[in-house]
Amino acid sequence: xxxxxxxxxxxxxxxxxxxxxxxxxxxxxxxxxxxxxxxxxxxxxxxxxxxxxxxxxxxxxxxxxxxxxxxxxxxxxxxxxxxxxxxxxxxxxxxxxxxxxxxxxxxxxxxxxxxxxxxxxxxxxxxxxxxxxxxxxxxxxxxxxxxxxxxxxxxxxxxxxxxxxxxxxxxxxxxxxxxxxxxxxxxxxxxxxxxxxxxxxxxxxxxxxx
Length: 210
Hints:
- Residues about 5-25 have low confidence and may be disordered.
- Strand 4 (about 45-55) and strand 5 (about 60-65) form a beta hairpin.
- A nine-stranded antiparallel beta sheet has the order 10-5-4-3-13-12-6-9-11. A two-stranded antiparallel sheet has the order 1-2. A two-stranded antiparallel sheet has the order 7-8.
- It has about 210 residues and is mainly β.
- The chain has helices at about 10-15, 95, 105-110, 180-190, and strands at about 20-25, 25-30, 30-40, 45-55, 60-65, 75-80, 100, 100-105, 115-120, 130-135, 145-150, 170-180, 200-210.
- The two termini are about 30 Å apart.
- It has one domain (about 10-210): Immunoglobulin-like (Sandwich), CATH 2.60.40.
- Helices cover about 10% and strands about 40% of the residues.
């Protein structure tokens, strides 16, 4: 596996428009919203996009407004959740996930890292795309979406293990190349490094610290 992990619906936009509060079990919950720039994987320079993450006691919602994409290409977005960021080796990042080309099992278990598909979309003619996703505490990855590995490699296969306010969340945008049709497109929009035309590449990222 490569080192880097690399359709918006109206409901997702509605969630973010009222991001100051969230409705859960009929009660309003206080929330915390964090807006971050997106960056290029190649050189960590500004990619001109915006990533917004909102946390409540039982869920995380996110939107990404991506710029400078290839028109007509398929893109997936991935959650990398550090459920216990205090256990990261330094700044939470690839060193906690990989040792060389191998999975850093000790680091993944210590920081309780989980990686799963958040959502996907196809870039518009102007090279922009919007993405929206919801991750509930105690949930698996989105229904039908790929879970690369669960938090801390635990057997319960959860991505977000209860620590909505304290988890560090990295959001990765992967380019799958020109969008295909039919079932091939579904695979492109669901699985890591799948349906690549001609190759897949992690191109942009954002970091949301607790």
